[in-house]
Structure formats: C-alpha cells, structure tokens
Specification:
Blueprint lengths: L5 H7 L12 H29 L5 H28 L5 H4 L18 E2 L2 E2 H20 L8 H24 L5 H5 L7 H19 L15 H20 L7 H29 L4 H15 L8 H26 L7 H19 L11 H5 L2 H34 L6 H6 L1 H6 L7
Antiparallel strand pairs: 1-2
Length: about 425
C-alpha cells in the first residue's frame, strides 16, 4: 500500500505552497541532516547521559542497553513498525488505532516516492530514529537489575505493540484517533517522551527496586559523561524539533529558536533551584535541567512564540525537579535514572502547555479547536484527551509486553549475585572505564 504524505505535511505547513510530489533539494538535504542529528541523540547523547549517572559496575551495561535498543528498534521499525504507524487500515474503526500491514518491509514504497518535497525513504529513516530513542529512554528506569535478554525482547515487542500504535494515533493522518481530534504534538511530547517515560516507570515497578535502594548510596559513575551526553542531546534535538517542520522553512526556524530559549531557561532554572535550596549548583543539575527543557518544548516547538518558550522551559524544570526530588521519594519507586521524572512529567507539561500557549495563528496550527474556532479551552481539553489516551495505552501495553518478555526469558530480573558483581562483567564479560 503506497503512502502519500503530501496532504498531512500541508496541514503542518499551510504557509508554504509546494507542488505535490515535487522534489526540493533544500528540504531533502535538511531532512537528511536532521535524521543524522536525531540518530546522534541515542547511541551517543542518551547513552552517555545515562552511563554517567549509573554506577561504574553497570556503566557498560547501561551503554549497551541504549545502543542495543537503538539498533533493534530500527530493524523492527523497518520490518513492521513504520507500516503500523503510517500505513492505512481498510477498517475505519481500526484506522483510529493502527495503520495497516501494506508497507511491511516497506513493500509498495520505492526510492522514487516523495513525502511532499523530499523522498519517502528519508521520512522513514527520520521517523525510525524517533522510534529508537523512545524505547531507549525507558531503559534508564531499570538499569542495574534487568536481564539484557529480557530487555531486548521488550524492545522488539514494545516497538510494535506500544510505540507504533501511539505514533499512528497522534501523527497517522486522517482517520487516526488523536490526529482527527486535533491534538497538537509538534515533535513528540506524547509520542516520544510521555510514552518512553511511562514505560520506564511501569518496567521499574514490575522488575522491582535495586538491591539496597534507597538506603545504599548509588553514586554516579561520571558526571562529566552525563554533561557531555546532555550537550550532545541538545545538539541533536535541533534535528528532532526543527526537523519536524519537514523542510528547510520558516517553521523550522521557529522550532530552532524556541528550542534554544526553553532549554537555556530550563538549565538556568535548575541551577538556581539547587543554588537556593542546597547552596551548591551542581553540574548534574544543570544537565538535568537542559534535558527537562528539551523534553518540555518538544510538543510545542513549532507552535509557541518567544514568551511561550520561556514559560515552557522554566516550568518544565520545575515539574522535572519536583518529579526527581519530591515525587520519587514520596511514592518510593526506583526509577534508576529518572526517565519518568524528566521525560514523562516534563513531556506531560509540554503537551498541556501547548494547548494553553500555542499562538492563535492558523498558519502555525493543524486542524483542531484552536485553529477552527479560536477555542483555546477546547484545544486544552483535546490535549488532556491525548495525554490520557497515550498514558493509558502505554501503561497497559507495557505491562503486557513485560510479562511476555519475562516468560520468554525465564524472568526479567538478574539474580542477586549478578546484581552484586555488576552487570558489566556478569552479562557482557567486559569492563567499563574506571574513571
């Protein structure tokens, strides 16, 4: 089944009149560069960000879980994930939740096909990097106690059962549940960050707490690696957000600027919070604030102005700080590297803030209450619907995936001796750096 995305792209970018299926070399070049930027975010940026925060005996395992998730998720995406996310289902009812299987192994799509002004092959690769980083985000919640084999089974199943349907519901075009409702998600606040963060929390609860948590001090392996990872994430995020304008155009410029503003404001806010509360501004705090700001602005990047970007970034840090410092301790769950606190909560805020702060400009919005009638409260309620649907789907789907993967691999958790020795040597037969 051949996929045509020109109509979908036109909803995102109505200000730009481009001929259907006419190649634009500038847009093509930008989308290929954006794909490379987003690719850098996972096996380099996220891997370093997470690895630096874990204990030295699990550092290599942490990197392997992120990189392993990335390569497997990309393969799953090409085989069937893309078809489920962006294909067309013959049943109108099923089309609300799933695309069809007409594009399995990219059947029906050729190198000549275009998605608006650039090759569909580029769109497939670009979206594949989103699929890969989303599941990799969830790994941060279960570091130090999950079997690598179980994790890899989870990655494969989760990409098909959870990620692809969520992507379809939000971005799948006419007939898809949340797309038809007019939900605004510019680059993946619900699709990526809420999705990955919720999955991380569910997995962390199901696999159980790390031995000794929270009484035993579990100090980060290397804050320098974490800060380097945050810097690479910020760099790659320009492809993530500005690339979601689907071309080298003015909307990409809006997304680039709002991403810069929100991220800088969020990093500064976290630093000031620690300075005021703990009397010491930490590098880990600045890095965490940067990521919280990046997450928060993602759903809003192409929809808000300068003032909105400041608000999204600053409040994104406040929400993330609350999740990491207060909520985690209050509820007692062991989210090893705070995937839920940073990604889910900041993503949730960003998704809701989009409805509140999106510029009332028809040229910046796709169909929804705000565009159709200027109904901001109606748009906010659509945003509420979108976060509830995504949260529920991810929660239920992740529980199902966990128990299937656990049954296949004979239990999800490593034994106590393996956990004590460390997963680097026990599972991989290698040692990470001793910094």
């Amino acid at each position: 089944m051949k996929l045509k995305l020109s109509a979908l792209l036109a909803l995102f970018l109505p200000i730009f009149a481009f001929a259907e299926d006419k190649l634009d070399t500038g847009d093509t070049a930008w989308m290929m560069v954006s794909t490379a930027f987003v690719l850098l975010m996972t096996p380099a940026g996220l891997a370093l960000f997470y690895t630096g925060m874990t204990r030295s005996k699990n550092a290599l395992n942490t990197f392997a879980m992120v990189m392993g998730a990335f390569v497997l998720a990309m393969v799953v995406w090409i085989i069937a994930g893309y078809s489920i996310a962006f294909g067309t289902n013959e049943s109108a009812m099923l089309q609300k939740f799933f695309g069809g299987f007409g594009n399995v192994m990219l059947d029906g799509i050729t190198w000549k096909d275009l998605s608006g002004t650039y090759p569909t092959y580029v769109f497939i690769a670009f979206q594949g990097t989103f699929a890969a980083i989303t599941v990799a985000i969830a790994s941060g919640s279960v570091i130090g106690r999950m079997k690598f084999s179980t994790w890899m089974v989870i990655v494969a199943l989760w990409g098909l059962i959870v990620y692809a349907p969520v992507t379809h519901m939000v971005w799948g075009g006419d007939g898809a549940l949340l797309f038809d409702a007019g939900a605004l998600d510019f680059a993946g606040g619900t699709v990526v960050h809420m999705n990955g963060g919720m999955a991380g929390l569910v997995l962390a609860i199901l696999v159980g707490k790390r031995a000794g948590y929270p009484k035993t001090a579990m100090k980060p392996f290397s804050i320098i690696l974490t800060a380097t990872g945050a810097a690479l994430l910020w760099f790659g995020w320009y492809g993530f957000n500005a690339g979601s304008a689907f071309g080298a155009n003015a909307i990409a410029g809006v997304a680039l600027l709002t991403t810069t503003i929100a991220t800088a404001a969020a990093g500064l806010t976290w630093m000031i919070l620690e300075w005021v509360i703990y009397k010491k501004p930490t590098l880990l705090g600045i890095a965490s604030g940067i990521v919280a700001g990046l997450v928060a602005i993602t759903p809003a990047a192409g929809f808000v102005g300068v003032g909105g970007a400041f608000v999204v970034g600053i409040v994104g840090t406040l929400v993330g700080f609350f999740g990491v410092v207060v909520l985690k301790k209050k509820l007692g769950y062991d989210d090893s590297l705070d995937a839920f606190g940073i990604h889910f909560l900041a993503g949730l805020w960003g998704a809701l803030a989009t409805g509140l702060l999106a510029l009332n400009d028809k040229e910046l919005l796709w169909d929804g209450p705000l565009k159709e009638s200027g109904d901001r409260m109606g748009q906010f309620m659509v945003q509420v619907e979108s976060v509830l649907v995504v949260g529920a789907w991810t929660l239920i789907g992740t529980v199902i995936v966990y128990f299937i993967a656990s049954a296949i691999t004979g239990g999800a958790r490593v034994d106590s001796e393996t956990e004590e020795i460390g997963l680097d040597e026990s599972l991989h037969g290698e040692r990470g750096m001793n910094l």
